[in-house]
Each structure stands twice: as C-alpha cells, then as structure tokens.
What we know:
alpha/beta
Amino acid sequence: xxxxxxxxxxxxxxxxxxxxxxxxxxxxxxxxxxxxxxxxxxxxxxxxxxxxxxxxxxxxxxxxxxxxxxxxxxxxxxxxxxxxxxxxxxxxxxxxxxxxxxxxxxxxxxxxxxxxxxxxxxxxxxxxxxxxxxxxxxxxxxxxxxxxxxxxxxxxxxxxxxxxxxxxxxxxxxxxxxxxxxxxxxxxxxxxxxxxxxxxxxxxxxxxxxxxxxxxxxxxxxxxxxxxxxxxxxxxxxxxxxxxxxxxxxxxxxxxxxxxxxxxxxxxxxxxxxxxxxxxxxxxxxxxxxxxxxxxxxxxxxxxxxxxxxxxxxxxxxxxxxxxx
Length: 325
Ligand code: UT7
C-alpha cells in the first residue's frame, strides 16, 4: 500500500500587490525586489478575509477534482503557523468550515516546511493503516505578521492556501520516501515573538516591530541552499533514485536565487525545477502545494513521473518528499 496525491487545489486572497505598489509606500523598488528575490507580485490578506476560508476553498477544489465529498475524508493535517487563534488548531477550524466532525484534525508547525512535514505525517499514518483518505493543507498568511515599515521583510511574503487529497491504495505510485530535519540552534534567524493583534496591510492597527517577523536573511539564504540541496539528494538516495531520473522538483518558493542555487548545486537544469515565486512571493507552508497545483495545471507532471518536493524555513526546519506520480 502507498499514499498518493490524487488531486490538488489552491486559493489566494483577492488583493494583489506588485512591487511598484509597495514602492509607493516604502523605500524599495521593483528593480531591487525582482533582482534579489525574483518576486514581481504577491497576494495579501485584507481586513475581513479569513485564511481558514481560503483553506476551505482550496480543499473544496481538491476534493471536487478527486471526485470525493468532504465526508469521505478520514483526517485533516495542516501545515501552518498562521492560525488566528492560539487554540483551537487551524485544523479544527477548517474541519468545521468543511462541515466535518469527529475525524482527527490538527496542525503541524514547521513554518515554510509545513506542507512537506504535514505530507510526511499523513503518509506515515496512512501506511500504518490509520487513515484511507487524508486532506493535507499548507496555509499561511505571513503578510499579517510583518512590520510594513521594514522593507527587508515586508516585500518578501504573500498569503494563500494549497490543498492535496491523499489516498491510500495498492501499487507503486505515491510517496516513495520523505525526510524531515530541524535545527533549533538557528531559531533566531527567522522568528515572530508574538502573534499579536491581527493586522493586514489595510488595517488601522499596526504590528509593533518587536512583535513582527525578524529575519537574518543572508545567513538564512546560505543555510536554505545547503539544507535543501542536501535533503533532496538524501531522499533520492534513500529511495535508490538518481537525481537525473526525477522529472520535476517543486521547491519551496522563497527566493528565485535560492531555487537556482539549489538546482545548480544538484546539477539540475532549470527546466526540471518549477517556479512561481514571481507571482506569489514567499507563501510559507502554502508555497509547495500552490506550486504543485500550478505544475499540474500547466501539464508539467504526468502519471508515473518522479516528483520531488523540498522546503526549508524558520526553526530551522527542512525536508523533502519524493513521489511517484
Ligand atoms: O522561507 C523561509 C526561508 N527564507 C529565506 O530563505 C530567505 C533567505 N534570504 C533571502 O532571500 C535574502 O537574504 C533577502 C532577499 C532577504 C535579502 O537579499 P540579500 O541579497 O541577502 O540582501 P541584504 O539583506 O544583504 O541587503 C542588501 C541591501 C542592504 O543595504 P546596504 O546595507 O547594502 O546598503 C539592505 O538595506 O539591500 C537593502 N535592502 C533593500 N533595498 C531596497 C533590503 N531590503 C530592501 C528592499 N528594497 N526591500
């Protein structure tokens, strides 16, 4: 038995901000953001929008593509660090939005690695025979945690949700191997001290800079390149697969320069690496499932292809999943 992603979906907030829009409010430029990150625009939450509702929308799309009713789902695992509430979990709020009851629903907090972590947790429980059909979500809204006066972080993040329906079935398709890693010694490289009040770009309330995202970007950059390259190689080796046999890498979309550096380190040509950071920015745990959904939509993935997902984020956390599609 193996666990296979049978359908995906995605949802983003309505407000789309270009680099030019941001340059009207802070000392930055389209040229700087594009050349340092590859980002051209991002979707951000506005007052009154709910990330749980976006996750529900992404889930409904994925479920409908899978031909399943929400009631067919045995568990919900959410990679997120963006719940509006300290508790209950985002997973429980999403379960309620989907009209479900009783099934286990919980969060996995691994920052930008959240979806890769959640997928691995779901896969392990499915292999153990606990669940037959699982909704795996990556959802984050880091734009609500930035200090809009801090140009070094405010331009980087976008918000959104991605969903995948996983089904346990016989055969050799599905998750072949996953590895998860953390290194708490680096926790201060990317952190938010306090979730604080809910702030959006259009809200009157402003996040105190002490409660906003703080990042040591250049140190994180180097660790992200090394950890994502190393874990990708390790997962491939664990599954006895050569990197050259992988049809598509779907990496966490933090920075185009990080993605390119990882590909270069692994000797992979750019056409084997999916990118959409230009249109979404860094959506944290949502980035891998949103990218996966777009890769499927644009026909970049075919049945039986080998697909590698990888990510690195605050914690430090990192991980990868190798799938036979
Ligand atoms: O998803 C989780 C993992 N996240 C990451 O992996 C992010 C990793 N880090 C990065 O992507 C990059 O380090 C950044 C994009 C955050 C920054 O790029 P960088 O090439 O490392 O730039 P820097 O931080 O070294 O800053 C260079 C300059 C500084 O000015 P000085 O000191 O050289 O005069 C900054 O003040 O760029 C300035 N700067 C900006 N200028 C215009 C920083 N942010 C901006 C901005 N617009 N938005």
